[in-house]
Design brief:
Elements (H helix, E strand, L loop, with lengths): L9 E4 L7 H15 L4 E4 L6 H10 L1 E4 L11 E4 L6 H9 L3 E4 L3 H15 L4 E4 L5 H7 L7 E3 L2 H5 L6 E6 L5 H13 L3 E4 L5 H16 L2 E5 L5 H13 L3 E4 L15 E6 L5 H12 L2
Parallel strand pairs: 1-12, 2-3, 2-4, 4-5, 6-7, 6-8, 8-9, 10-11, 10-12
Helix pairs in contact: 4-5, 8-9
Bound molecules: iron/sulfur cluster (SF4).
The site of iron/sulfur cluster has 13 residues, from α1, α4 and α8.
């Protein structure tokens, strides 16, 4: 029988990777109630990380879709860190449900700013991913009128007003956001720039670049649906061609590694610390 040789790998976890405070707060809120034995429904997955979702669902957290809210009465309903549009608040309150709003304070402020710009009659443009829960929450602040675009190419196709208020989904790339501003300036549009990119995310880029370069290989751990994860993984890959994306420690592949390599383990703002540590241990055991 063939046996794999031990690889003698050294692995280091990036201490700044892992849950941002918005997600920590949302999980803490949910867990406090679950620990009291209460049933808690979260609108959408509380965090874009399958492992953490599984851990919380074992404690009794139930993820539901927006269409399920109307069937709930006298229940505890949690809004996750991404936030929700105003009509979801109305729907929850219609049936005497208890709302636990775990919207991240940064997203709440952004929602208020978007709403205010719209109230002042400004044309609101959002650099972000149409359909993303946070973006839906933002568009909801403008009665559905905000225009959303994800790339400069998409923006190029849009007819623009003479003046607009520009916002960003909190997890977009800051460099791309600046390119958007330059593009609008080049087209002669008067832009009121609201740099609403979360510093918990954008600050991570520079550190991740250095972390990626510093290791022979990088293993990036995040949920498949995390936009923050995709963005940060691209940063790693640009600065270290030997970067691998996994969601679970079981996805580690012996064949990726060469003996004696020094591996960096990092993740998104939605990756739990316990999972990063589990990956580190499994790598060192390969
Ligand atoms: S990434 Fe930033 S804005 Fe988003 S939930 Fe975390 S702290 Fe809040």
């Amino acid at each position: 029988m063939l046996t794999k040789n031990k690889l003698h790998l050294k692995a280091e976890v990036d201490r700044r990777s892992g849950f941002c405070f918005g997600v920590v707060k949302a999980i803490e809120k949910a867990e406090a109630l679950l620990d009291e034995g209460k049933r808690v429904y979260s609108v959408g997955q509380i965090v874009h990380n399958e492992e953490e979702v599984e851990r919380l669902s074992k404690k009794g957290l139930i993820a539901i879709g927006h269409e399920d809210i109307r069937d709930l009465k006298d229940e505890n309903i949690l809004f996750r860190a991404h936030g929700e549009p105003p009509d979801t608040y109305e729907e929850v309150r219609k049936h005497n449900n208890v709302l636990m709003d775990a919207t991240c304070p940064i997203v709440l402020k952004l929602q208020r700013d978007v709403h205010q710009a719209w109230l002042y009659g400004k044309h609101v443009y959002i650099f972000g991913k149409a359909g993303h829960p946070e973006v839906r929450g933002l568009v909801g602040q403008t009665n559905g009128e905000a225009r959303v675009f994800r790339t400069i190419e998409a923006l190029r196709e849009m007819e623009l007003p003479q003046a607009l208020a520009l916002f960003s989904q909190t997890t977009m790339n800051p460099g791309d956001f600046h390119d958007v501003v330059d593009h609008l300036n080049d087209r002669g549009v008067e832009v009121e720039v609201h740099d609403s990119i979360c510093r918990q995310v954008s600050g991570r880029e520079e550190e991740l670049k250095a972390f990626s370069r510093h290791h022979d290989r990088v293993v990036f751990v995040a949920g498949r649906h995390s936009s923050n994860g995709k963005m940060l993984y691209e940063v790693c890959r640009t600065h270290n061609p030997y970067a691998h994306f996994i969601s679970r420690s079981e996805e580690l592949d012996h064949s990726w590694f060469s003996p004696g390599e020094h591996i960096g383990v990092c993740g998104a703002t939605s990756t739990p610390h316990w999972l990063l540590e589990e990956v580190r241990q499994k790598i060192e055991a390969l």
